[in-house]
Structure formats: C-alpha cells, structure tokens
Amino acid sequence: MHPLVDSPLRIARRRFLGQAGVGIGMAALAELLQCDLFAQSAGSNGIGALPGLPHVAPKAKRVIYLFQSGAPSQLDLFDYKPQLAKMQGTDLPDSVRQGQRLTAMTAAQTSFPIAQSIFTFTQYGQSGAWLSELLPHTAKIADDLCFIKSLHTEQINHDPAVTFAQTGFQLAGRPSLGAWVSYGLGTMNQDLPAFVVMITGNGQALAERQWGTGFLPSRYQGVKLRSVGDPVLYVSNPEGFEASQRARFIQDLEKLNTLEFEATQNPEIPTRIAQYEMAFRMQASVPELTDLSKEPQHTFDLYGPDSKRPGTYAANCLMARRLAERGVRFIQVYHRAWDHHSGLPKAIRATCQQVDQPSAGLIQDLKERGLLDDTLVIWAGEFGRTVYSQGKLTADDYGRDHHPRAFTIWMAGGGVKPGITLGETDDYGYNVTADPVHVHDLNATILRCLGIDHTRLTFKYQGRNFRLTDTAGRVFQKALNFNASAGA
Amino acid sequence: MAFPWLDAARYADSNGYQTDGERFMWRWRDWVIDAFNRNMPYDQFTVEQLAGDLLPNATLSQKIATGFNRNHRGNSEGGIVPEEYAAEYVVDRVDTTSTVFLGLTVGCARCHNHKFDPISQKEFYQLFAYFNNVPEHGKFRRVGNSPPYIAAPLPEQDAQLKRLDAELAAASAAWAALQPDVAQAQRNWERSLDTSANVGWAPARGLVAYYSFDTDLTPQVAVLNTTRSSRSPVYVSRADASTTLRGEQPVGTSAPGLVSGRIGRAANFDGKTFLQFGGDIAGFDSYGAGRGALGANDPTVTYDDGYTMAAWIYPTAPSGAIVTRDEDIVEPNGHGLNLRDGKIEYDYVTKWVDEGIRLRTQKPLALNQWHHVALTYTGSRWASGVKIFVDGENQKLEILLDDVNSQGAVKREPLRIGGGGGPDNRFRGSLDDVRIYNRALSPAEAGMLADLTSVNAIASLSEDKRTAAQADKIRDYFLEHALPASLAQARTRLANAQTSRDSFYQSLPTVMVMEDMPTPRETHILIRGMYDRPGEVVTPALPAALASSPTAYPPNRLGLARWLVDPSNPLTARVTVNRFWQLCFGAGIVKTAEDFGSQGEVPSHPELLDWLATEFVRTGWDVKALQKTIVMSATYRQSSRVSPDVRAKDPDNRLLARGPSARLSADIVRDQALSIAGLLVNKIGGPSVKPYQPEGLWNEIGGGGAYVQDHGDSLYRRSVYTFWRRTIPPPSMANFDASARESHMVRPVLTNTPLQALDLMNDVTFVEAARVFAERVMKEGGPSHRERIAYAFRAATARMPTAKETALLEDALVENLERFKAKSDAALKYVSHGERPRDPKLNVSELAAYTSVTSLILNLNEVVMKD
Fold first, then answer.
1. pLDDT-flagged residues of chain A (< 70)
2. Mean pLDDT of all residues in chain B?
3. Where in A359-462 does DSSP place strands (E)?
4. Which residues make beta-bridge pairs with B398?
5. Which is it for strands A432-434 and A424-425: parallel, antiparallel or unpaired?
6. Which DSSP string corresponds to B422-466?
7. B707-733 burial string, b = 16+ CB within 10 Å, else e?
8. Set of chain B residues whose Cβ sits within 8 Å of the Cβ of A239
9. CB of B437 closer than 8 Å to CB of B380
10. Would you state the pLDDT for residue B58?
C-alpha cells in the first residue's frame, strides 16, 4: 500500500548480509537484529523484547493508565465513612494522626476539623461497591472493576509523589513504568511508539521526566500524543511538501546512505535507514490513528459529549482505546484536575463531569471489542486527601490537603478480579487497616499482569541492578484473577 | 566546550520540580563562555566555580563563577517541607562536584557506605558539610532568583553603576559640606516664625493616600490608579455582606461616624462597618508592576514596590483590621496591617499558610488610648525589610513567616480601612489620619508622624530641648518649605542621584551565587539519607582514600577546590582530559566518564590517560593546548573508513584503530544546520533566547505561562543560548538526546530514533535552514544544477559528491522541479517556512526544488555524524 514495502531497506539488508567479506560478525548482527525494528524474540509478542520476557504467560498485553493528577479525594468518591457525621467539625485525634507529617499548607493550622463528605453514597452492582453520587457512570460498571481502598505512599507533595508513583523512587532520575515495560516487552506495532502519553487539564504541573527513561536508553521514552498542532511532534510534512514527495525523499536518502554504508560499513547507517522508514510509517499511522471520522456516533455517546472535542479527557480515553487496538503497549492518560485544597464540593463535581463518563465508557468500549480481557486499566492518583478540612469548614464547603496514608484506586481488565472491593481503612479514612498496598506493590502487580516478575526486570547502572520497585514491592494477589505465584 | 559544561553543571533557565518557574543564571553562562574563550586555565576555572567567593578580594566575576553550585533545581511547590529540599540541594552539590571533578559516584554513599568504592557514608556527609553553609531557603521563589543572589551587571552596566555611584558620592559630599549653612539658614528661618501659629507637618513626599476624617470620609489625597478608582467610600457592614466579600461588593447604609480624633476628627468603627474604596487607590504591587520591561509580573524584577501604611488608632477591642488590601476572608491573601490581641500584626501573604511575610510586635499596646502605628516595607521580599513603629518607636518584632516566594495576590483587593480579613476582623474604635506612602519611610519620618507638636512650637524650643522626632520634623519642614534656593539645588541633586542609582541598581540582572554564613550550619550524617533523621555531627573533610594530606587544606570550599586541582590529586586531571577525549572521539579513554570507581570501565589506554593528564597539569591546565594536542594527533586524524577486517577487530573503536565516528550532539546538529545555511548568529552572551518550538507545549504540562517565541536574530543564536525549561526541555534538542538538565550529565548517550528523523525532515528549524541554504546554493553555487549540487554537498559534508551521489541528487532535483513548477502554490508554501524572508529574486519553484535537495543533504547520515 505504501511505496516502501519493497524498500531499499530490504535491499540494504540483503546487501550487507550477503556481501562477501563483510565479516560483520554474527554477534554484531544479532545485536543489530535485536533493535526494536528487526527482531522477533522467541516466545513473545513484542518486537525488541528482552530475551526471556515476559517471564510467564501474561494476562494483559497492554496497559492503559488513567492517571488522575492532583490526587482525587477518596472520601468524596469511593471511601464511604458514615461515622464522620458524628465527628463533623471535631479535631482529628492525635491517636489517628500518629504524627503523620503534613504539608506546610496545613501544618500550621490551629485545628484539623473533620469534614464528612457532603455527597451521598450508595452501593452498586452485584458486588455492592460503594460509590458517591459523583460517579454515576462508574457506578454502572462497578461489577467490572476492582476497587482497592488501601493504597498508601510516603510522599506528601505532588511532584515527588507523581515521580514516586511513576518511577518507583521519590527523587527524579529513574525510568518510568512505561519505559520499563517498553524496555522489557518491546512493541507490538512497528508503526507507532510503544509508550504513548496524553495530557489534559490545567491543575498541578507535570514533567517530561515522569514518563522518561532515566538511565534506560532513551528510545523507551513516552511519546506525547497531542491535541494541538502535530499529534506527534514533527510528524507532519511541512506545508507544500506532499507525502509522495516524502516517500521519494526517504528512498533517495536511503540510497545515499547505503552508498555511504558501502564505503564505510558504519553499523549506524542501517539503523538510521530503519528510523526513517519507521518515521515514514508513522506519518501514515498517526493520522490514521487520530482520524475519528469513522467512529460511530454511539461510541462518542458512550464516552460523553467531550469525546468529540480534542484536548479533553474524554477524547483521550477514546484515543486510548484506539491506541490499544493498534497494539500500543503502554498508554497513559494524565488528567490534571484533582487538587482540591479549597472549594472541594464545587470543584470535584466539575472534575467528575470530565472524568466519570469517559473512564466508564472506556471500560465498556474495551469490553465490547473484546480488548478488556488482555488490557490492564488502572485509574489512580498520586496520593489521597485528608479527612480534616483545609481552611474553613462550613456546612457546604471544605477543602482537603494531601494525604499519603490511604487512598483508593481501581483496576480492571487483564488479570484483575472484577466486581470486588479490597483493602480497608479506619473510620476516619485516615489509616489503612487491612491489606495495605504500597505504590511499589501496585507497580509489582501491574508488571505481574504483564507477565513480568518485578524482581527480575532489572538494568545495571552504577554497579547496581535497578528495578522499578526499588528494593520493595509485593504482588497483590487478592486483586488478581489468577495465581501469581504459579509459573504459567 | 560550553554546551557540554552546561550539561555537566546542570544549567537551566528554570527551577525544575513542579512549578518550574523561570530563573536567571545566564550571567553565569556568560562567565563560562568567556572563560573558555579566554582559555582560562582549568585549575582556575575549577577554583573560581567552587569557591570564587572565598578568594581574597573576590571580584564580581569570581563571585558569578560560583553560580556553578546554585544551578541545581529548586522546589517551590506549595506545601513542601523546606528542610527536605534544603538537604536535596546540598546532596546535589556533592553529587555534581564529585562526578564532574572526581568522576566518582559519591552519591551512592548518601544512604549507606558505598558498596564498591572506598567512600563511607560519613565521608559523604563530610563532603556535604563543605556545601551546607549557604544562607538559602529550602523553598525556592516560584519565579526569579532565590537567595543568595547578587546583582551581576554587564561590563557596560558596571561602568554606568560606577558613574552613578560616583555622582551619588559627590552629591552626598556636596550636601554634607553645606550642612553648616543649612543649619544656619534653618536657625534664621526659625527666628522668623510666628510663634502663635500652629502649623502641623508630616512627610509629604510619596504620599499617595491620606484620610484626615476631619470633615468627611473621603480622602484628602488619593492617587487613583484606574478609571474605576473612586474617592467615595463604599460602606460595608457585616449585616449586609453575608460572610465574606469577594473583590468589591457594594452595599451598606450606615457609615462610620465622625468623632473627636487625635487630630481634628476621626472615623469611628463599631466592629460591623468598614470603609472600602472602589478601584485601585494608592496601589502597590509585588514584583514591581510595570517596572520591568515585561510589565506586571516581570520575573526579572527582584523587588516589590515598597510602601508605608500609617494611622492613629484608638482601639476599644484588641483585634481588628487597620488598613488592608487583602481578601475579606479569614486567612486572606494580600497585604494587611492589623491589630491582633493588642499587638500590631503585618501580613503580606501570597498563599496562606506558608507563603508570605508575617510579623507581629512583641509588646502589646494599651487599649482605649491613642497610638500612632506605622508600617514600612522596603520591597525587599524579606521580613528584614519590614519595620513597625508604635508611637514613633521602632518595635521589636516576632517573625511568624519569612517566605515570600511568588507574586502577591493576583486579584487586587480594594483599599479598606477598618476591614479586610473577614467579618470577625472589623476594627472597633477610632482611626485617624490614615496615610499611605509609595515608599518605605525612614525611622525619622515614622517618628515625625507620631509627634504632633506644631512646627512653630518646636521652633520656640531650644535645640537641646527638642526630641529627636521634633528635631527631625522641623528640619524636614524647613527643607521642604524654606530652604534657600542656593542650598536646595544640592538637596535635589542628592535626591536625584539616589533615585537614579537605586532604580538602576534594581534593574540589574542578578545571578545566584554561593556564600558562606559566618557561623557554619551544623552538618549531621543523615540516617538512610533522610532529611529528618539526623545522626552524628560531622565537619568538612576530604575522603581518606583519595587525599594524601587531608589537613593541608582549610576545611572550606576553597580548600576543597584547591585539593581538587592539586597535582597530587589522582583523579581531577584524568577525569577532565578523559572528557575532552570523549568530546573528540565520542567515547572516553575511560568509557564511563562519570565513574572512575571500581564499577566503571578500566581505561582502554591507561598510559595515554596518564600522559594526557600530566601534560595537562604540566602546561598549566591549558585547555586549548590540550584540545589542540588531541585533534592534531595521528590517532584523531585517522580516517574513520577502514577495512571490514579492521572494523571487525575493533567494532567500538576502543583500540582506536580508526578515526572517531559518532553522531553529533543535539546542539551541534542544530548549530551546524544554521551555520551551513548562513543563519547562525554569532553574538556572544546575554539572556537565553526562545527559538522555534511547537505551540502549546508549556501550557499542556504546567503553569507558568506560555512559551513566547523570539523573533529575528534570537531565532538563530547558538544552541547554548536556547532557553532551557527542565520539565519541558526543547523537544527538538530532547529528540537528539540533550540532557533535560534535571541533574548533571557528563556522558551523553546518543541514540538513533524515528523521532529524530521526523525532526530533521519536518521541524521548521531545519526546513527553514534547508531553504535558506538553498538560497545560498542558488546564489553562490554556480549556474548549473550540477555545480550547485556539488556546492551544496560540499558545504555540508566537506567533500565533493561522487558520481553516483551527484546523479541521485540531480535526479531528485529535477523531479522536484517538475513537481513544483506544476504546483506553484505548494512551492510558495514550501519556501515560506520560518521567519527569515526569502530572497524575492529567486524563482519560487526552483527554490522549492533546491530546498528539497538541501533538506535531503541535511538529513544525510554523514551530515549528522562526525566521521
């Protein structure tokens, strides 16, 4: 369909493979072939995967991580605490706080008045999952979801907490989850990046390093798919220069580079040729990806009215499904809109309007297309929010500060046990009382669903075998619909 | 040379972490570029950057150099625990300094003894102690430089500053010389005064609002800053405004009454009603609105507007607002002078609870009597810039918060008297003679305000019977009203000289620097590297395994720096020459340039490394000489084209069997394209510039405003000047493996990705460069296609094209020519990318065709690789 099927690339390969006296050596050749665009690793469905990965048969082939940046208030969405009504306005007891450090925003408050949620909670589905009135669409699919109320972390500020959730370390410099997965499992689609990131909202800031590669080779970087300008940076030809000209351009470039290769035998050259090939394929695959004209109206209805508006969370959820369909391994959707320090009731309503329907729509859409079984979906923020009010507590208004010791996430899809709520917190929603799941544990569990033993996906750097989960992490078996310690 | 040094030094134009606001370290970059250009010896280069401030009679240049260890990131996220990040900054200094100069992964010893190298955790913290003495805050200013920083005038600015200082000194001297005459003139004038009259006086200069409340509630003086501003008060009472007010909500029927006051009459407040004025009266702002070239919120402006708020108060309750411009809610953002439990409290809060300046007098004042209260703020953004005077006396203050780190309240709150800070903060009692000045009054002037003796009465007192405030007052009155013209001129000259000098000084660029506090901060081992788990106390010391005579150096940064460049130091020279080798060859003699420890790779040619290192030292650490030695060596001058046999034996060129062959670094890929096109602007130094970048990248990821692209020459400066924002570095550079500068990088890892291909083909930077290159080619390359192609090829690759290459390129040219002739509007579009206007004399279709060929050439492997 496009002019490079019988490309000079193949000619070049034939040439350098067949050339007499090339003597490049099988070792070097093997290394070349292992780069992401040539190899098929035995036993995996990933091009460019590490040998031996996945360690066991995966339950999920791809991940969609819906990252709720700013930290959703679990007490107003998921973690129903009716006893707070009795304690409304009273001070958080020291026996509950147990010396938890607070951010400087509330540390100097003279009182820490308990603030119950003003929203009504009901149970839904066969599983009886508790959800507040803010999440009517999520409520409809409660039986597909696994709620975990016992997440906990150490960080109390956004940037290091997001860094922790994404890279397994509070300090910047380590590879992100998506980079690890991309590095370990390779890509399933040679025409698109293996790790794609989409961002919406205008709350707390993010940073490129949060989907970065740290000390891993930079080709595992999360590539942003944007709603403004070029969906992938620089993917479009400059105005006035057409695709057919670009095809010819790349052919000419390959010919010229091949001539250089003949003269120098520089192994960079075949790789560079391959990159231009992939770039050209992306120039076709990206517009195809972002062209929603063939999506039926009922799909847009499923995700909600925003889904037709580029640059919204809903539009990105729909795009996430399309990416999943096209074999993109790791898809992250960031929505920056949850940091409700003040005016929480009004603000969270607005955010849920943006997030509830599309998140639920994505699950339904994946399910209908048979993708949910091998796609792991995670809906999570970087920490929770305090049971005490930040700022003045009134009958209808309150704010909540950051809270690391307990928060709620949900998961669905490949490897996850649906229709269940796990983990418990105390009456204040402050401390985890059963089944604590640390951020490291969550990451270990995600990797396990992908068939990866988190302790064995490592990279040697500065003399140490680093891994995503640092020196910690335990797979949270209760959330899984398979036996994680079994081999197969 | 400079760009890799910036990578090592983690230079950036933003603070990093979450907000990633702008900062200004370009004066340090200027220093670096200048140092390399002047071939500053590397030992001096090292010492000045690590400890320039500690050198005897340290020059401005030497102090600027110390910016090296302030380049680390700084966290300004709301709610952080400052101590946590203060520790991170020092850790970064240890880590960076060790990696850059010693090639050691000392950072591994932050939490435990180094697992491989002979560096204990204790020794990590002994190194930490060298850098732990800076008078800095753990929380950085959101935008702009964070202390300590200094004014860093450019040479021409320095000259101007010296001229202004000289004029100020001369004017001061001239005025001082006239003092006997002034005193005499004053005495003469005093004798002429009518002792029966009763002339009052208060400082007049800079008065922007004044309410005497003698006849009504409107001001006698009011500088109205907007068309909405109004001298008519709006009366607001608690009964009418439910719980809080936002901005200006009207309403109110009951005005504060007028009662007998301290001077004439006063306004009486009942705890329910207060005065509020529409618009912006007597406005002042954080970040000196309008003072910077970029207008309001110009981050280059380092000072707020200074101001004074003063009033006579007769409080009948212990708490209440006096004069405010803050939100009318509990814990308001904004500026407020309040009575709080009998003490005078000043709150300048940019974010409650932890951002702002808040202080309170220590001594409560008595209720039910008149007091004069004055608050002066110099605009320094420090609590130390605030003074509170009660009855003319400068009060001892309790500092509750000293952490301004962002702009003042964005929504300007109206001026309120007796209110602001919520419905429970209304004043009870009387307020009289409310004054606001647009400058910080001096203590003498504050004293004058509190003294109500008439000028005439003071005149009738003998000089030795006058209080200081009285003496100041009558002199001030005299100077303002009766100073003879012959003497007034000198006074005006002095005032002008001071203003000129001050405003010029405040406009100078600043740079963050290292300083040491007079009393060193105590350094502890941090257990498991945690900021809140201090262990044993340690003092600065060198690592035992490396320092042969550790006590020969003073235990400060200067001692550390001198040890680093001492010929007995086994590492620094080797590590440095190794990086120069890496720059030339694409890989160091020690491949792991960041790790000369046991986990790093052994040198491929240890004797060569030793020889280069000792040569370097022997020549006086001469950087240019070393570069020359390397590039003129037979090794470097080998061809990179070798037989497959040779290549097979030495695939990575560790044996140096061939000349270097490595992809060019990100900055050089861009600089080269611009240079070949003739676009590169060679101007040296100055603030960072903003070349082309896809739209909306900054907004997508965070706050802090949009990327505003530059125009003209700034688009074509060398990449070392490109504005570097850490959380969203220039994508084109990032694509080519440029460091994000979140932390130090001494060994670039070069990759080969499709994003690079897309960039080189489609990024306007390269499309424009190709087009301008094509213009050159058409104008300079000769008349024929063939000649022009050869010209273009040679310009980019430094060799003539072979017959096959020429044929290919000619083919491409001809096909594109036909295409663009047929589609002339496409041709026009294609040659219109970028802001450099095209040469209208050149045929558009032809130019488009040549552009596609020059673009092809710029994409060649050979062009983006050095070999």
1. 1-45, 487-488
2. 92
3. 375-380, 384-389, 400-403, 407-413, 420-422, 424-425, 432-434, 437-438, 458-461
4. B360
5. antiparallel
6. -GGG--EEEEEEEEEESSPPPHHHHHHHH----HHHHHHS-GGGS
7. beebeeebbbbbbbbbbbbbbbbbbbb
8. 826, 829-830, 833
9. no
10. 98
- Residues of chain A neighbouring B830 (CB-CB closer than 8 A): 238-241
Query: What would the pLDDT profile of B473-526 be if each residue is shown by its tens digit?
Result: 999 999 999 999 999 999 999 999 999 998 899 889 999 999 999 999 999 999
Cis before residue B730, ω within 30 degrees of 0?
A: no
Best mutation target, B424, B640, B753, B852, to test chain A (most A CBs within 10 A): B753
- Chain A contact set for B706 (CB, 8 A): none
- For residue B361, what is the enclosing H or E element? strand B355-361
Q: How many CA atoms lie within 13 A of B311 on its CB side?
A: 30
Q: How many CB pairs under 8 A join A and B?
A: 253
User: Could you say which residues from 208 to 247 on chain A have a Cβ atom under 8 Å away from some Cβ of chain B?
Assistant: 208-209, 212, 217-219, 223-224, 226, 228-230, 232-242, 245-246
Is the pLDDT score of B222 beyond 90? no
Min Cα separation B56/chain A (Å): 38
Q: Pull the structure tokens for residue A116.
A: 């119950």
Q: By the 8 A CB rule, do A226 and B748 touch?
A: no
Residues 6 or more apart whose CB falls under 8 angstroms from that of A22 comprise A16, A265, B644
Closest-CA distance, A51 to chain B, in angstroms, reads: 21
Q: Please, which residues have CB within 8 angstroms of residue B581's CB and are 6 or more apart in sequence?
A: B588, B589, B612, B630
Is the ipTM beyond the 0.95 threshold?
no
Q: What's residue B403's pLDDT?
A: 84
- Do you know the residue count of chain B? 867
Q: Which amino acid is at B402?
A: D
Please give the single-letter amino acid code of residue B370: W
Residue B13's Cβ-count burial label (10 Å; 0-12, 13-18, 19+) is buried
User: Contact B353/A108, CB-based, under 8 Å?
Assistant: yes
Flag if B753 and A218 touch (Cβ within 8 Å): yes
pLDDT of residue B704: 66
In the stretch 456-475 of chain A, residues with CB closer than 8 A to chain B read: 462-464
CB contact under 8 A, B77 and A240: no
Nearest CA in chain A to B663: A268
CB A146 within 8 A of CB A479: yes
- The neighbouring-strand residues paired with B717 are B681
For residues B538 and B527, give the distance between their C-alpha atoms in angstroms, rounded to a whole number: 13
Using a CB-CB cut-off of 8 Å, the residues of chain A touching B703 are: 202, 205
Q: Quick check: B742 and A392 CB within 8 A? A: no
- Look up the pTM and report it: 0.89
More confident residue, B216 or B255: B216
Task: Indicate whether B721 pLDDT > 80.
Answer: yes
B458 pLDDT higher than 70? yes
Q: How far is it, in rounded angstroms, from Cα A365 to Cα B181? A: 92
